[in-house]
Amino acid sequence: MRNFKLLLRSTNGNAILSSIMMAGIVAGAATVAYKNFNNTYSSTRVARIKAKQAIVEAQVRRRALQPDAYVECNSSNLATCRVNTDYFSDLGGQQVVGSRCNGKTSVCGVVATNIKINPGTRVFSADVAYEGSEVKLKPLTVQLEVPIEVLQAPRFHCGEKDKTKPIFTGFDSAGAPICEGFNACRTGEFVKGIDVSKRKLICQPLPTNVSCPAENMLTALKWNGGAIDANCGTMPEPPFTSRLATRQIASVDPGG
Length: 256
Prior knowledge:
Blueprint: H1 2-64, E1 70-71, E2 82-83, E3 94-95, E4 109-118, E5 123-130, E6 140-145, H2 148-151, H3 153-156, H4 158-161, E7 167-171, E8 177-180, E9 189-195, E10 200-205, E11 216-224, E12 227-234, H5 243-250
């Protein structure tokens, strides 16, 4: 009887110990599962947000090289040049599904901010940041040098400056564009071709007028490279002339 009681106590103790161990194992597994879930969630969120950042960054870079992105850049020293904020306004808040704002900002998602240009160096800069609170990511920095012809497009557009000189051929010593136009063919000439290397029209005289004798008509005409070949033939009788019509006209009494 005494041995049975000792065995019972031993069995109860082992059961309690086993229960405690099982509880610890379950709690540990739950902790690991929760941690893995959070890690997976964070990785998924980061990948999604970075993909959106890359899209917005590409849009910012493309727009930064467009003349419409800048205003007041027509002076020669560019000192008044600035960014046209309206051109980038739709990039001020690109929403990302599942973002947590927590009331910290009115815009929650990927945003293009700090958009500006240094007129002296012609360097455009901007930040592409994420303003959600569930993950922390560093902003992507955009920096690039804008060509002067982009900033001063109206000055460098030869077609707009002078419609008779639409061809841009380079810059002079002062940095102004050199615009040229095509030569004009004279009266009595036609454009046979264009010499692209010299930007010249190739002109040739128009062929002489073609004439046929009286009561003749033109039956064939061929024009090749300025040379003309024409044939004349006898005109056919008009379809309305006949002996009957002639008699009827002659029998009319003018006096009524």
